[in-house]
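Lab notes, practical 5.
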Amino acid sequence: MPKLTKRLVDALERDPDRDGFVWDTEVRGFGVRTKPSGTKTFIIQYRNEERRTRRFVIGQYGVLTVETARDLAKKKLASVIDGADPSQERRAAREGMTVAEVCDWYLEEAEAGRLLGRNRRPIKPSSVSGDRSRIEQHIKPLIGTRVVAHLKLADIERLQADIAAGRSARKRRSGRGGQTSGGAGVAGRAISTLRSLLNHARRLGIIEHSPANGVRVIASNKLKRRLSAGEVRHLGKIMKQMEREGEHPTALAAIRVMLLTGFRRMEVLAMRKEWVEPDENCVAFPDTKSGAQMRAAGDAAIIELMSQGQRNTSPYVFPADWGDGHFIGVVRVLDRVCARAGLEKVTPHVLRHTFASIAASLGFSELTISGLLGHGPRGVTQRYVHLDAALVIAADQVSAEIARLLDGGELLSMKQAKRGRYMEGMGTFVDA
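Output from the prediction step:
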């Protein structure tokens, strides 16, 4: 076999049943391995001081040229003569990585967009942010100093039990940010994060194996809180009172839109005016938790969005009070409104649940409600060549019912209002 060259390596063909090896004639022990998948990697093969044959991967062909790999091979083989064992050294380094070090590696790679999520796309920044919070608040404080190679499945499940019991909880701090609590839901999400990042590390060769494989994630009680029709009516009354008293109008409008659409909090707050398509009764999101989506919005919701859009020149429907960004303070206003109304445990997600609950009470199927909420790729809105007319009808009826409740039973003339002039800053459409 001749000296390894780029032409020779390019010409190597894979064997679907086993690894293929070709050795260099210039540097003894230097070669290239072709996996059944077609991946080609440069390796060295040598005997250590115990006369045991070892192989050491130098790097992947394409990342390294043949010449660069040959130079690295010479250096590694020269160290073997001096008594070094590169393969054992790498294995020891991997086995010595702590949980904190692997977590830091994961966060760095994920934030740089080099790790792909379940949809084969870079993990979303919002997901990485949630992972960072769970890592810093629960995983690192409890097992950050542990060596990954020494962990067993029982250790991971013990970690889960400790988080659920509140061992990593801490009191509310002053200023922004809430308290860190325990519970089944927190524990389950933390273990899911740990399992995912360890699998990324194992797949890319950072660790030899993941001790979280096979872990049973604790079941949590799903959020069941939703507002009844009476509570929605009372909430609407209190919101009107507080608006007259000077409560933040942008936040109140955002709360109303969340109820009228079932959209997620950040889908509403970060909504841009050009995404709103009143003629199609929809909002075209370029990206959501489930990817790009065209989501149906009833006339009541469209009217609210149009009305909000005329009040500012920002590209956002709900602009920030200062700067060029979008509004973010809706949670605090919702808390104040609910405190005045005497409603407990109401979050933006509860408003989303309420939309789904009212849709169900009107007789719509789970599949239709899933489409309205923008759930995963099983939903009927998910190919987005066009928006299903049935979803528009459903969204219109649900939003009209919620608007009726918020307005104390006074049903607005939606079609008449919508046929008016589309507000400046959101585009125009002519009176029919």
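Observations recorded by the TA: The domain at 229-418 is CATH 1.10.443.10 (hpI Integrase; Chain A). DSSP finds 16 helices and seven strands in the chain.
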